[in-house]
Amino acid sequence: MVHSKTNRVVARLAEKAQAKVGAVLPYFTAGYPDNATAAEFIRRADALGAPVIEIGVPYSDSIADGPVIQDSFNYVLARSYRLDDAFDLVRQVRESVTCGLVAMVSFSIVHRYGLDRFMRVACAAGLDGVILPDVPAEEAAATLHAATSANLCHIGLIAPTTCETRTKAIARTSTGFIYQIAVSGTTGERAMVADALSSEVAAVRRVSNLPVCVGFGVSRPEHVRSVCKVADGAIVGSGIVRRIGDGIEAGADHAQIADSVSAFIGTLTEAAATVES
Q: Which of 83, 135, 216, 276 is most exposed, with the fewest beta carbons within 10 Å of its own?
């Protein structure tokens, strides 16, 4: 049964568009360094105006994540973190935040849990969408149906190397927004985002009316500013997760790490807000 309520991902991104303000979509690894601290990161990012927050579900054999995020996965998995713990994190924050919450999760985890069961539990926990980076467009019909039946957005990824035919296919199986990958390769911080980004986003807009948010390699305020000139939002993961890891390694307490992460997200948000419409 499709729920009648408006999905938060759709509603919050629409608010940013109406205000003509670029969106910053932060990414946090579930359970990193623990659920209580991850929940604090999410609450603070929501308070800073993040319309959507991505929550990465730790997985030992990730295909899309670079070393910074994979290290965070390894840290969490070494503490016997499970999918149900990630759902518990969502439950902890759902009533205290207004942003959309989206899980970035390998389909291997979803398949093992059970596709329909996963979507049903995800919705009940308070998630608003899923990103399944290892589901190809040719096999996305089943995951799209299961997600939309649970009122979850089904967010597709489009790479710089994706041809027009596949871009159309991915767009047809996407809801909420489309995730435009800025660079070829895995997630991670880079010196600059691709010069071709403007034309890549334009190509997506030709085949879809959905918002386009850009990630992979977006890690600095100047990146966010560049992205938000051509796209609806900038997704920042490794730049945030690295700061968490640096804090852990330095022996900082979790409140200090939260302060550092919040300050960084604040600079990103300011950069998005200063883009001329």
A: 276
